[in-house]
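The authors assume throughout that readers already know how a fold can be written as discrete tokens. For illustration, here is how one protein appears when written out as sequence plus structure tokens:
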Amino acid sequence: MLITSLENSRVKFASSLKNVSGRKKQNAFLLEGKKLIEEALKCGYKMKDCFVLESKSTEYMSYIQNGAHTVDERVFGKITETENPQGIVAVFEVLEIKADKFDKLVVLENIQDPGNFGTVIRTAEAMGIDAVCVVGSAPDRYSGKVMRSAMGAALRMPVIKFKNADDAFEFFDSEKISVYAAVLDDTACPVNEVSFDEKSAVAIGNEGNGLSRNFVLKCDKKVYIPMKGVTESLNASAAASILIWEMCK
């Protein structure tokens, strides 16, 4: 059956998930594109609904045969976020992902950019990091931009949230995790010369201000990335990639 009404209850439900408030209220999120949808199914996420653009019905006939709804372009545009959608979008239930150990962690304090957040998650998974910790504010891991930049890693990587630095360090101390703050500081050590402890975390601040003073004061050590060019700093995802590599090599 072709859905053409923007007032259709399924369409309105799916559209509400484009906002973080809707995702939290419904405990569900959207995924666009066949690759991410298949990855979510492989990871054990439960699909609640699926919509296929009418012009792509032949390409995604297997989904339609399994209950996906065909929709016209206007309806599909209401559900999707991307400018060039792939013709299929699905609703999934949120699935809690827990870490089974905390030997290597990445910590992000007040990170702002969803693209950076997703890229850090993707790099962390690739390098074998056990979990990504977010302290303070952060983009919603189930946002479309985070999911696309993480390329499926956000479906698998544990993300641990802390309200503030005090809460985070209560956890780090209890797990006996040494925290290394990435800072531009005369007292910091070049990260390539640091011998990381067996249980370690590298911490990166937000794109504009770096780590907060309170967070840095609580850290065990301070590190920096040696650079030869004129540029003084890297964005959060680039810095995280280098720090993760040095911690895990």
Summary: Residues 169 and 218 are 7 Å apart (CA to CA).
